[in-house]
Amino acid sequence: MQALKGFKDILPDEAVLWQQVESTAREVFRRFGFEEIKVPILEKTALFARSIGEATDIVEKEMYTFTDRNGESLTMRPEGTATVLRAFIEHAMHLRRPINRLFTVGPMFRHERPQKGRLRQFHQVSVEALGADSPRLDAEVIAMAHQLLVELGLKAELQLNSLGCPECRPGHRQKLVAFLNRHREQLCQDCQRRVESNPLRVLDCKSANCRQLNAEAPAILDSLCRPCEDHLTLVRRDLEALEVPYSLNPFMVRGLDYYTRTTFELLTDALGAQSAVGAGGRYDGLVRQLGGPDLPGIGFAMGIERLVLLLQEQNGTPLPGPDLFLACLGEPAADYGFTLLQQCRLAGLSALMDVQGRGLKSQMKQADRLNSRFVLIIGDEELAAGQAVLRNLTTGEEHRVALNDQLGDLLQTVGGADGAGT
Ligand code: HAM
Fold it and tell me: In CATH, which superfamily holds the domain spanning 12-168+224-315?
């Protein structure tokens, strides 16, 4: 039996990097006042159709949708925003705080063609700030996305755009449709269809002809109404004040229909065709559209698989092993070692020992293969003298430590190296 195409097992070596991504994200989000919300994976199909948009690729052809035993159409969530907003509305969370800063971490499902960095089950850290339309909130949220990458030691280019609002978008749409109709024969088949159903998406088409044409298409930035233009100016001013580097990309459109005004993407050229590590934007009409109060919001999501790939490519894979491996010679030493192992673990060290009665050489090999930081070698004689030899496997240094109830020497040396232990 094999995993489904586009569904991936995360083995322990890689899971370490996932933990790094998730714990860094939690720490950065905490500092920006974001709280975790946990939401279901399965929702009514209508939630996604109404929020992401009927004419988007996601809703048209990528959702895992099925009819359950009660005859109801359900969908495995393809993204987090719609679900978090459903929960926000259902629990009247706007009464809880004036601005709800929420994040969620978990799997999403899209039936796309799998390739490097693109899966059918992938994972996002997904962030939503609900309740304010201030451009300052946009800058804060974007700065937080930037900070997460900085703290992971990753580089990505931040691109910014504005998609306008219901006031100015129709004017742009009209100009765009007129332009596309003038050049209809140059468009790919899909885009010819999109001219009516979703003309903005044409700007995002990857086919060579459409791309060439799109470079000359009317940009929404040139059609923004005054309030949208002011909003963008203030977001840019705040990003500059926070020294968050960005560039404007007037042709950026997003694959989800709910965006208004600010949109942004974090791009890298290290992932082949899958260049976005994260993306997001403002969605001021969405809460109301889903039946909630008329409250604005902004958010973003980052793909954990893509962050992990970048970590692997930029830093190689660090394989942290246990703090300590106990190598014991003879049965009394092994019996003593087993209780010492427990003491070490209770004191906060990660510690392992052989449980199969192997010889010293093979135990040392095991310690090496596990990438243990230290080995404590306990022989019967050392045990009788109340001592053991502690070897640092990185430097090769050795010294004798006293075996007593406090384990002071041992914990100080092993725990002191990276703050673990005592
Ligand atoms: P999105 O652009 O569809 O936005 O996805 C955000 C990120 O999820 C992408 O930049 C990428 O890193 C990752 N991602 C998307 N699809 C895949 C896939 N098939 N395989 C691996 N990674 C993938 C959203 O989902 C919005 N809900 C973001 C948002 C939150 N906007 C406002 N709030």
Answer: Bira Bifunctional Protein; Domain 2 (3.30.930.10)
